[in-house]
Specification:
The complex is a heterodimer of chains A (390) and B (275). Chain A is α+β, with helices and mostly antiparallel strands and 390 residues long. Chain A is built from 10 helices and 10 strands. In chain A, a hairpin with a 2-residue loop joins strand 9 and strand 10. The radius of gyration of chain A is 21 Å and the shape is globular. With 275 residues, chain B is of the alpha/beta class. Helices cover 27% and strands 26% of the residues of chain B. Chain B contains 8 helices and 14 strands. In chain B, strands 9-13-8-1-6-7-14 form a 7-stranded parallel beta sheet, sandwiched between helices. Chain B has a 3-stranded antiparallel beta sheet with strand order 10-11-12. Chain B has a two-stranded antiparallel sheet with strand order 2-5. In chain B, a hairpin with a 2-residue loop joins strand 10 and strand 11. The chains are: A alpha+beta (390), B alpha/beta (275). Chains A and B meet through helix 1 of A and helix 6 of B.
Chain lengths: 390, 275
């Protein structure tokens, strides 16, 4: 039993921490206020190899692992959740499906630019009536004969798709109903598959970006697919395995989101310690008062607990052991830690906590989604309860 | 002469381990220098390392036989400056460490480094930062070049290499307040670079992993043929007699505009002899 980081993990943490403080933090408030995508930051993250962390060098990756990605996410999210989610979604939702389920040709075609951060990929799963319950998927893909052979013709809409409309978005992997079959009881079972859609395909439109509560510098759009035609070879993985594939992607993604949320929780602690040491009230710094000390101590407890939970889930995953429940626990604990810490941090900051430029108020707006995205708290509880045989 | 004939370049980059300016520093020890609370690779040396890596990359990389060696001198922890350099991209590292070096001023430092570079050399190019971020004397590069009888270009804001008739040559630009100089020199040479020359890169994970396999040679004064009394406090030409922290900044003057703020601002600046 040892949760101490190896030297190379620790060096990665130190490097990303320095980058986050020196390069990301100074422009965070600006991009948040302007709802603008931080292209210059993303480019530098690409140069540092952050988008290639878990991929082998043959595909332009860094030859690291998924835990290395988590450590980087934690450090970035301390100062800027939008930048962290851009990396998280770019790697675990954009590139990872291609790496896990793609053919050699698909990997060679898409991964090098994604791993270098020169291009971004999106994962088009969610629809207005389909999220964690994929059976609600309405987007369809049918095989038709095209000029150069069989083509998938895709029609439907997607919601809340991260990284889907940036200037450097190169593809979106979409889930679609590719057929139906009848169950023994007579009900209809949808066959769901995943298909790679290059973002410049005619009929593919990233609609106007959402006006979100938080994660303002993260790129999120509804997508419209109208008679989008891509070659049959763009099928990702086995036909009809789309549902199983994305469940695996989401399980991993929960660990990454837990790491991101841990960073947010820790960022609130760091901000609060600094402010408590500076702000004077009634003759001393507010950090001298036990009510503030206890609040910050409680915040540290949450951040630490969240970190242990995601370390545990990640170590099980890397060891090839079942990790689904641990990932759900980590996601739930860390998401709540981020939201609770953001609430406490804004309280410590008083009036300044209600001013948008402050990091803690940004965490307050940004953290709510951590209890919703990648499976809501309720979905995590459902999965944990199911594991307990309930 | 073309690049292939000019041959592989051996570049030495001098890197220093300094207290992190982000943290509180205090003065102490026998030599009244800053005490290392949290230490890092001197930011100004990162520009020298980046310049070396860019030169190598622009001229065929390691495949062309070029090699960048990161060199430091200092106590045990100073090796971290070399480790960071290896993560960023240097090919190998050298750490000169010896108790007797403690308290060395610029002249003693340049003496030790000159002996070290002669021991390791020959190098085609020696790159340094424009100053250390702790001592801030900017003396070592010039002294080192003199001791090694090398051409020196200090405070270079740009640096290029090209093959010439007799081997590699360099072109550098020095920016002054009112003009810029373009300087040429033949190699071997020593160049100190400013913080305007490039944008240093961060190490990536591949570099962090690769650094573990790179060699760091640890040497003592005896290894490089320097006597203990030639360096340290006894071998130094200068000695810090006293050091006191700068008094904290006084509160600024707030000029409230009552119609005459412009005039009062100019008066204030003139009073401070800033106009």
């Amino acid at each position: 039993m040892n949760f101490e980081l190896s030297e190379e993990y620790q060096d990665l943490v130190d490097t990303v921490r320095e980058f986050a403080d020196e390069v990301v933090a100074p422009v965070s408030a600006k991009h948040d206020a302007e709802h603008s995508f931080p292209y210059e930051v993303v480019k530098q993250m690409g140069d540092m190899g952050l988008f290639g962390l878990p991929f082998p060098e043959e595909y332009g990756g860094m030859g690291g692992d998924y835990f290395a990605l988590c450590l980087a996410l934690e450090q970035l999210a301390r100062v800027d959740q939008s930048v962290a989610i851009t990396l998280e979604a770019g790697v675990s939702l954009g590139a990872m499906p291609v790496y896990r389920f793609g053919t050699e040709e698909q990997k060679q075609q898409w991964l090098p630019s994604l791993a270098a951060g020169q291009a971004l990929g999106g994962f088009g799963l969610t629809e207005s009536e389909a999220g964690s319950d994929a059976s609600g998927t309405k987007t369809t893909a049918t095989l038709e004969q095209g000029a150069d052979g069989p083509e998938w013709v895709i029609n439907g809409t997607k919601e809340f798709i991260t990284n889907s409309g940036t200037d450097i978005t190169s593809l979106v992997t979409v889930t679609a109903v590719t057929g139906t079959s009848q169950r023994p009881d007579g009900t209809v079972k949808k066959e769901i598959s995943t298909i790679l859609v290059p973002s410049d395909t005619p009929g593919f439109t990233a609609e106007k970006a959402y006006n979100k509560v938080g994660w303002n510098a993260s790129d999120t759009h509804p997508l419209t697919l109208r008679d989008v035609r891509v070659p049959e070879a763009n099928l990702l993985g086995t036909r009809g395995r789309g549902y199983a594939n994305f469940l695996q992607i989401l399980d991993e993604g929960r660990i990454a989101i837990a790491a991101l949320a841990t960073g947010a929780a820790q960022g609130c602690v760091e901000q609060s310690i600094r402010y408590a040491g500076e702000r004077m009230a009634f003759g001393s710094t507010i950090g001298a008062y036990q009510s503030i000390q206890f609040k910050i101590a409680r915040m540290q407890v949450r951040a630490h607990t969240a970190r242990l939970a995601y370390y545990d889930a990640a170590s099980r995953m890397l060891a090839g052991k079942p990790f689904k429940t641990q990932a759900s626990i980590a996601k739930l604990v860390a998401g709540e830690a981020a939201m609770d810490n953001a609430r406490d941090a804004t309280q410590i900051f008083g009036g300044y906590g209600f001013i948008n430029e402050f990091v803690v108020s940004r965490h307050y707006r940004d953290s709510k989604i951590l209890e919703i995205g990648e499976g809501t708290t309720e979905v995590q509880l459902m999965l944990i309860a199911r594991e307990l045989g309930l | 002469m073309d690049e292939a004939t000019a041959g592989g370049l051996r570049i030495a980059v001098l890197v220093k381990h300094v207290p992190d300016a982000q943290f509180d520093r205090h003065i102490g020890g026998d030599d009244l220098t800053t005490v290392r609370a949290e230490s890092i690779l001197s930011e100004l040396d990162e520009y020298a390392l980046e310049a070396a890596l860019q030169l190598v990359e622009a001229h065929g990389g390691a495949a062309a036989g070029h090699r960048v060696t990161a060199i430091t001198m200092g106590p045990a922890a100073a090796v971290n400056a070399v480790k960071k350099s290896l993560q960023i991209g240097a090919d190998d590292g050298v750490h000169l460490t010896d108790e007797a070096l403690n308290g060395s001023d610029a002249s003693a430092t340049s003496k030790a480094l000159a002996a070290l570079l002669q021991h390791l050399g020959p190098f085609d190019l020696i790159l340094t930062g424009m100053a250390s971020t702790d001592g801030e004397t900017s003396l070592v590069p010039a002294q080192l070049a003199e001791r090694l009888t090398l051409p020196q270009v200090t405070f270079a804001a740009s640096l290029d290499l090209a093959p010439r008739d007799d081997g590699w040559g360099l072109t550098a630009r020095r920016d002054n307040d009112t003009y810029a100089e373009t300087i040429e020199a033949s190699l071997p040479a020593l160049v100190s670079v400013t913080d305007q020359i490039n944008e240093p890169r961060y190490p990536n994970f591949k570099g962090i992993m690769a650094a573990k396999k790179k060699q760091i040679q640890v040497l003592s004064l005896e290894d490089i043929g320097v006597q203990q009394d030639e360096v340290g406090l006894t071998g130094s030409w200068t000695r810090v007699q006293a050091a006191a922290p700068r008094p904290p900044r006084s509160q600024g003057v707030v000029i409230t505009d009552e119609g005459d703020a412009g005039v009062r601002l100019v008066d204030f600046l003139a009073g401070q002899k800033l106009l």
